Amino acid sequence: xxxxxxxxxxxxxxxxxxxxxxxxxxxxxxxxxxxxxxxxxxxxxxxxxxxxxxxxxxxxxxxxxxxxxxxxxxxxxxxxxxxxxxxxxxxxxxxxxxxxxxxx
Length: 104
Known about the structure:
mainly alpha
């Protein structure tokens, strides 16, 4: 049987044809193998989850920094001054009206 298989391969003549046939057989075997398909699916999901994990770690760092700033008295005071116009007792506030760009 091995001799007949080998002789049929020799009839192909061109080694390129043999390479294409072997590649086609390998592709068919791998695509028909459910374990291999599952492995590829799991690998893609792992990559997606790793990207999501990195994004969540970055967001976590930013939120920790923001929390640290919010617990700071100086930051809270500067935000109160900026957002709500907070001024301390006996402190003067100067307000300037913006100039029109047309008059420049």
